Structures are given as C-alpha cells and as structure tokens.
Amino acid sequence: MRKWLIAVIGSGHEPDRELLAKARRVGELLAENGYALITGGLGGVMEAASAGVQSKGGLAVGVLPGPHPDQANRYVGIAIATGLGEARNAVIATTADALIAVSGEYGTLSEIALALKLGKPVITLDSKWDQIEGTIRVDSPEEAIAHIQTLFPAPSR
C-alpha cells in the first residue's frame, strides 16, 4: 500500500509564531501517523510543517518554484525543482491526496481552488479562506489530523 501524501499549504513568509507552531504540530502529527508531507518547499508554513515531519522521522517532499533543488528549506527530504514559478501549485494540488491550509495568502487560495476542482479534501486551520464552499474548517492540528485519518487511514507500521 502506498503512503498517503498530505499537503500543508500556507504563506512562505508567515511571521506569526503561533501559526508556525500549529504548522509544525501538523507536520509532527502527520509523521507520527505514517503520512508523508508535500509542500512548496520554501519558508514560513512550509518550513514549519517540514521541520515537524523531520523531527518525527517522517518524509517531507518540497515542490519548488525555481530550477534549483538547493532552494528548498533544510527540512525537505526530497526536493523537486520545477522551474514553474507559481504554476507549481498545480503540481502540489494534483499530487496531494488531501490539503491542509494553515493561514495563507493568494498562492494558498490557488492551491485550494485547484484541489477542490480536482475533488480533493481541503482542511483549513486559521485560514481566511475557510468560508470557501467545500473546505473543512478545523480548530486545531489534532482535529486536522483526525479528519485526515477518517479519509485516509494510515497504513499499519
């Protein structure tokens, strides 16, 4: 059975420590429950989630906008350099089994829209996009992962 790939999406420049802590906790919980992470591979929410995954021995995949894999944050285990710029959001939305939006700006909105169009579940945590029809609003990292578990049972380890 393949490993479920869950995206954590959000601002690459998120300055709010509380939101970054939530993104990191989402990453920790993903790894603890046997899920792999996919992000845009850069800073902010993406880096925090990747750090959480790495701290628990999990796998973080970064789909980078630029042509150089060394642009990935230090917690990315597999860096995919696309050279696609913001169009890489389509790769993330298409590849992920589900997405968790932590905060986020317009790039996050594009990923949400693409994922919903593809029929993918989108969970929002402290996001201004949580009123979009089809998204699932949660109040904590634990609630986000509990919802992921109902949709995609983690493989037994």
Describe what this molecule looks like in 3D:
The radius of gyration is 14 Å and the shape is globular. The model has no long low-confidence stretch (mean pLDDT 96). The relative contact order is 0.19. α1 packs parallel to α5 and α3 crosses α4. Helix content is 38%, strand content 20%. The protein has five helices and seven strands, in the order βαβαββαβαββα. It has one domain: Rossmann fold. It has a seven-stranded parallel sheet with strand order 4-3-2-1-5-6-7, with helices on both faces. α4 links the parallel β5 (98-102) and β6.
CATH topology: Rossmann fold
Distance between the termini: 11 Å
Number of strands: 7
Helix/strand/pairing category = alpha/beta
List unreliable stretches of 5+ residues.
Answer: none
Instruction: Report the CATH architecture.
Output: 3-Layer(aba) Sandwich
Q: What is the typical, i.e. mean, pLDDT?
A: 96
Q: Order the strands across the largest sheet as they lie in space.
A: 4-3-2-1-5-6-7
Query: Could you describe the largest sheet, including whether it forms a barrel?
Result: 7 strands, parallel
Order of helices and strands: EHEHEEHEHEEH
> Which shape, going by the Cα principal axes?
globular
Beta-strand content bin: 15-25%
Give the helix level as a range of percent. 25-40%
What would CATH call the class?
Alpha Beta
Radius of gyration: 14 Å
Taken together, the total number of domains comes to 1
